[in-house]
Amino acid sequence: MEKPSLNTAKAGAMRFNTDSSQMEIYDGNQWTGILATSPQLHTGGTRAVLAGGYSPGAVNTMDFFNVDITGDAVDFGNLTTSQYYAAGFSSRAFGFVAGSSSSSNKIERWVFASTGNATDYSDLSQSRSEAAAMSNSTRGVIAGGGRSDIEYITMSSTATGVNFGNLTHGNNIRYCNGCGNSTRGIIYDGVLSPNTATNVIEYVTISTLGNASDFGDETGGQGDGPFSCSNATRSVRAGGGFPSGSTTIDFIEIATLGNSTDFGDLTVSRYSGEGVASPTRAVFAGGAAHPSYYNNIDYVQFATKANAVDFGNLTDGRNYLSGASNGHGGL
């Protein structure tokens, strides 16, 4: 018989469950099974889905591609409604978009391993527009979006979002973007209310609750629509800055604190695209430089610092799109 522990488990603690014969990890709230799984088993490689966007006007388009190779995106299905600038995040099996440009509290979900339409899944506790999101294998965290607070959902549950904490700024933050690894979520702030661009980077510990803390500053291209992604060690951020955008790509080491450092340049100057990742590759899709909407997809290798290389094209040009992959750094 298992005897109770004298101490409360800390996030990241591991145990062997003799009842289920399975290794488990404590995520800060509960013990959850450690699954022997990978994007190769699910989808033959890391699959990215890019959902919604503006071109001009909101669209319900969903595209997908294999991050590990190059080529044009292919139709995946449709969102339940046309929308743009929702916050995208994912587990190994499911992708999610939360909120939208219309300040919605809706959360939609799709299955990575099959193509098809997204379905209505659950709700945020607050309506959000242009929010940032990040996730580990069990929890999705959504920050800002016309607000200064943070909430989370457990991705295996349809329960409504729960308060997580607050961002460092008291002002409402919009046009932001997020990513992270299994421990830390990174938030690239975009615009503070009413309309002040910022280059601040914040972070949270995904498995706990609490306010965000200052991480450092971006090198440039800040403001409307930075887009980012990460593997387990490094976050790469690109573009941003209405109306002409930027070619800037910079990076941070997630386990440290400090300002971002120059990485290279995008193939095309733009803002409000989206970043998706595999363990080795960062891919940047879509975006705009007013009045043009781009279908460009670029990529870089996380381990090296260099200019982006052409990957392929989306099915149509659009910005303010949301994305997620089943092989990002939080998994």
List keywords for this structure.
331 residues, mainly beta, Neuraminidase, four-stranded antiparallel beta sheet, 1 helix, 50% strand
Structure description:
This protein folds into 2 domains: 1-34, no CATH class; 40-325, Kelch-type beta propeller (Neuraminidase, 6 Propeller). It has one helix at 39-43; strands spanning 14-17, 22-26, 31-33, 47-51, 59-66, 74-83, 87-90, 94-98, 104-111, 119-128, 131-135, 139-144, 149-154, 162-166, 173-174, 177-180, 184-188, 191-192, 196-197, 200-205, 213-217, 227-230, 234-238, 246-253, 261-270, 274-277, 281-285, 288-289, 292-293, 296-301, 309-313, 322-325. The strands form 9 sheets. A 4-stranded antiparallel β-sheet has the order 6-5-4-32, with no helix packed on it. A 4-stranded antiparallel β-sheet has the order 7-8-9-10, with no helix packed on it. It has a 4-stranded antiparallel β-sheet with strand order 11-12-13-14, with no helix packed on it. The chain is built from 1 helix and 32 strands. The longest helix has 5 residues, at 39-43. The chain has 331 residues and is mostly beta strands.
